[in-house]
What does this fold into?
Amino acid sequence: MKTAAYVEILEREGALLAAAAEAAGSDAEVPTCPGWRVRDLVRHTGTVHRWATAFVAEGRTGPRPAADLPDLDGAPLLTWFREGHRRLVDTLADAAPDVRCWHFMPAPSPLAFWARRQAHETTVHRIDAESARGGEPTGTGVDFAVDGIDELLCAFHAREKSAVRTEKPRTLRVRATDAPDAVWTVRLSARPPVTVREDTGDADCELSGPAALLYPALWNRRPFPRVTGDGRLAALWRERSGVTWK
It folds into this structure.
């Protein structure tokens, strides 16, 4: 996907998140994030948006901690969120393609990294906000969902920080059933997972389903559409795959 497409998705998903949060109310529980209420979700996502913006806008070349969460609630919190989201969208849209700044996973360029990462960050948290609001969730495009699965498996869980490990080598397969060639083979061991975008060899467990359902399931936002083989690997994923940003 092109950077401009990620920015368009980021713009739409942030607006949907704010609308769902407003409809739910800041005190509503977030079923997909146990222990969080909507105010926690909005504070977190808005802080991440500002943190990401600073790297691109200021050309920061090393990691920096995020600011403290704001002491805001209700309408002022949503205004703060919308302002930060708008600045992130505009910063990414207006940035030079060759802008140099820090980023924390491999990407064609820093700008491509931040546009992709913030599009997915915001989409996952939009799902959270809609879970608090209730009702029919907004759909996710197949191509973008496949891209999100790829980012999670091939980038996030390729890092040393990944806790998805097994003492005995095992193989997990992930298959989006509605997209050609959208299949990943994830080799688990005592080291970080090694993932290849291909259907190769036998698998101990397969997680499969439409991309738009499999994507949030792998982010632990909904049940897996289908599990075949050793369900203990699906349970391991649920228990160990959480991604933290600090």
